[in-house]
Amino acid sequence: MKSLDEYLRDAEQAHGHLCAGQILGVRMAMLGLERLGIDDPQGADRKRLITFVEIDRCATDAVMVVTGCRLGKRALKFRDWGKVAATFVDVSSGRAVRIAAKESSKALAKQMHPEIPEKNRQQMLAYKEMRADDLFDVQWVTVELPPEEFPGFKGERIVCSQCGEGINFRREIVKNGKVLCRGCAGESYYVPLSRESRVTSRE
Ligand SMILES: [Zn+2]
Ligand SMILES: [Zn+2]
Predict the structure, then answer these.
(1) pTM, to two decimals
(2) Each residue of 16-52: pLDDT tens digit?
(3) Alpha carbon of 172 to ligand 2 centroid (Å)
(4) Alpha carbon of 91 to ligand 1 centroid (Å)
(5) Which letter does DSSP use for residue 37 in this model?
(6) Looking at 133-180, which runs of residues are DSSP E strands?
(7) What are the tens digits of pLDDT across the range 119-146?
(8) DSSP letter at 57?
C-alpha cells in the first residue's frame, strides 16, 4: 500500500482538486484495506475486493483511487444512501467491514483548528491529523453476494417483453407472468418523450 500522502496526490489528480472529501475517502479506504489485510489492492490482491459506496460525492472518487474498484469492472457497487460510508468486502475470505464517517468529526475539526476560519481547509488539516477512532465508525458486517454480483459473471441475457431492451445480471422483474426491465416495471427514473428510432427485438 502507498502512503497517505501518495494516495492523496493520486486522488487530487483523479478528482481534479484536493478537498476534505478526498482525505476522508482515502483514509476510509486505507483503513478498510488494513482491517481486511489487503496490501496490494491494485496488484496481487486486485480480485479480492468488492467495495460498496453510499454517496456520490468527493469521498467516493478517493475510495476508487485507493481500492482500484470501478463501476465498469463491477467491483464498485453504488447504494444511493447519501452517507459518507463504504463497505469493503474481501471475497476470498467473505469478511467485510463497513466504515462510516462520524458526524462528530466536523465539530472536532473545529475544536482542533479554530484558527482556520475556512471550513474546507480546517477539515482538510484536521481529517489528516485526527485519530481513526475519532474520524470513523468501524463495523464488521456480512454482505450477501449472489453469483451475479461478481465481476466476470456470465449469465443468460434477458429481453424485456415490453420495451425490447436487453437486461443483464438478473436485473429483470417478473410481473403478472411477464419479464420486464425495471423501467417498464414502474421503477423508471425518466419519462419517455419521443423516440428517434424503434428498438427492434435482438433475438
Ligand atoms: Zn472534492
Ligand atoms: Zn422494458
Answers:
(1) 0.92
(2) 999 999 999 999 999 999 999 999 998 999 899 999 9
(3) 9
(4) 29
(5) T
(6) 136-141, 158-159, 166-167, 173-175, 178-180
(7) 999 999 999 999 999 999 999 999 999 9
(8) S
